[in-house]
Amino acid sequence: MAQKKLIRFAEITTFKNVLQYPEGTAGKWHEYFNNSNPIIVELACGKGEYSIGLGQQYPDKNFIGVDVKGNRIWVGAKKALEQSMEHVAFLRSQIGMINAYFSPGEVEEIWLPFPDPQLRISKTKNRLTHPIFLRKYKQILRPGGYIHLKTDSPVLYTFTKLVIEAYGLILHEDSNDVNKELSDNKALQIRTHYESLDIANSNRVHYLKFSIIDDLDTSKDDWLLEQVKLIEKKTTDEQTDYETN
Ligand SMILES: C[S@@+](CC[C@H](N)C(=O)[O-])C[C@H]1O[C@@H](n2cnc3c(N)ncnc32)[C@H](O)[C@@H]1O
Predict the structure, then answer these.
(1) Which domains does the chain have, with CATH numbers?
(2) Which of 49, 61, 164, 177 is 20 to 30 A from 226 via CA?
(3) What distance in angstroms lies between residue 43's CA and the mean position of ligand 1's atoms?
(4) From CA 175, how far away is CA 179, in angstroms rounded?
(5) Which has the closest alpha carbon to 137: 94, 91, 102?
(6) Do 236 and 155 touch, CB atoms closer than 8 A?
């Protein structure tokens, strides 16, 4: 393993704003932050640009960046420490485990900036807007809490719109080109590392803001996969998946 990674792994164990695979956090986040402000979670946070950027825009809210990669979390956590951002923390774990870390309704909003699009059809279930994940988010979100997806992948954008429609989710905002259509939205101007890479080579950022009211019908999941096979078979072959190692 590269020396830099090893140093970062050792260092984050000393960071007071990083919790690695913690136990007993569910229902305790307000205690952790020592306030009763809303809790916003950034999933697949990488270097945590959204937790830091939104934390600067909203000092009266708490932000938790979640990612499995400690060397990436290190970047955001270090910045938060240097800027004395007591309302920003990082949680290292698998997103599939999210329900172990938050109690029902504890989270106000979820941000998903540039999650891996998981372009291979066999990986559809790993997309962070697949109903398998949305059912987990519904449990921890306050009723009607917003989910924000920002992506440069037309495949993930179209897939998520299909899920929103098929499962009866509430769509609040939909932009096919954030920089053209929503340039006055300050939160959407925060730039992440993967955004700057423009891996989809589309030079375009898509955004969806939606919420979940009813349970997502599990009997539709097989149908969803069939739709993906029909719609994506051609398009995904032509695109490059993210390299996130
Ligand atoms: C494409 S990167 C995006 C990072 C950041 N949001 C950005 O825009 O630069 C996706 C991130 O998701 C993380 N990730 C992917 N699947 C995950 C999972 N199941 N649990 C936790 N982290 C995950 C990866 O470690 C990686 O940092």
Answers:
(1) 3-237 (3.40.50.150)
(2) 177
(3) 7
(4) 9
(5) 102
(6) yes
Distance CA 34, CA 137 (A): 24
What confidence tens digit (pLDDT) does each residue in 68-77 have?
Answer: 999 999 999 9
Q: How far apart are CA 63 and CA 232, in angstroms?
A: 35
**Tokens encoding 160:** 């998520």
Is ligand 1 within 6 A of the CB of residue 116?
yes
Closest residue (by CA) to atom 16 of ligand 1? Answer: 44
Residue 44 to residue 126: CA distance in whole angstroms: 12
Which residue's entry shows tokens 């349970």? 215
Rounded CA-CA distance 207/5 in Å is 32
Question: For residue 215, what is the DSSP state?
Answer: P
| Cβ(194)–Cβ(223) below 8 Å | no
- The pTM assigned to this predicted structure is 0.95
Contact by Cβ (8 Å): 65, 17: no
Q: Is the CB of 123 under 6 A from ligand 1?
A: no
Q: Tell me, using a 6 A CB cutoff, whether residue 193 lines ligand 1.
A: yes
Which residues have a Cβ under 8 Å from the Cβ of 48 and sit 6 or more positions away? 42, 65, 67, 72, 73, 75, 76, 77, 79, 80, 88, 90
Does the C-beta of 46 come closer than 6 Å to ligand 1? yes
pLDDT in tens, 34-49: 999 999 999 999 999 9
Q: Token pair of 87, please?
A: 């309302």
Residue 203 pLDDT class (50, 70, 90 cuts): confident
Q: Letter for the amino acid at 101?
A: Y
- In this structure, what DSSP letter does residue 233 have? H
Residue 109: CB atoms within 10 Å: 20
